[in-house]
From TrEMBL:
One Pfam family named in its UniProt record: Pol_BBD
PANTHER family membership: OS08G0421700 PROTEIN, PBF68 PROTEIN
Protein name as annotated: Pol polyprotein
The Retrovirus-related Pol polyprotein from transposon TNT 1-94-like beta-barrel domain, residue ranges: 54-135
InterPro entries from the UniProt entry: PolX-like_BBD
Domain of life, per lineage: Eukaryota
Length: 162
């Protein structure tokens, strides 16, 4: 499972980039008002997502859920544990528990030790954890098929090129 570095969507210099600002010099001033071009850089955009959708992420090390109502069992965490997000920000882990996903096949997939992180925009199923727990994920033709002991569990589809 996984991918080769040449196919990685994360740029090679991902960790090397630092925040930068572009400075524009004023060439001329007329009537006391400078003619300048103004540029804005957005560091973070918080969009409302569909908190019932789940995304399989083969690089995620934990299952993560934003919606506390999806947990069938739950324990609050107050030890200050944080999750390092892909956008270089951190978010507080509020709890941990069990989530049961209902697959389109009618079968259920039980995820244990799921982290509750309200700030995450997409619920994540860790592909590597599924694999370590005996599940088989096959990615082919813009979809993935999930099975356990050669028994079909469910499938998912490529969405927005991810």
């Amino acid at each position: 499972m996984g991918h080769q570095s040449k196919d990685c969507r994360k740029p090679k210099n991902f960790q090397k980039k630092h925040a930068q600002a572009h400075i524009t010099e004023v060439d001329e001033v007329s009537d006391g008002v400078a003619d300048i071009d103004l540029y804005a850089v957005i560091l973070k955009c918080n969009m409302v997502g569909n908190f019932k959708e789940w995304w399989v992420d083969t690089s995620a090390t934990r299952h993560i859920c934003a919606n506390k109502n999806m947990f069938v069992s739950y324990v609050s965490i107050s030890n200050g544990e944080q999750l390092f997000m892909g956008d270089s920000f951190t978010s507080k882990v509020k709890g941990q528990g069990k989530v049961i996903l209902k697959m389109t096949s009618g079968k259920e997939l039980t995820l244990n030790n799921v982290l509750h992180v309200p700030d995450i925009r997409k619920n994540l199923v860790s592909g590597s954890l599924l694999s370590k727990n005996g599940f088989k994920l096959v990615f082919v033709s813009d979809k993935f098929v999930l099975s356990e002991n050669e028994m079909y569990i469910g499938k998912g589809y490529l969405r927005w090129s991810v």
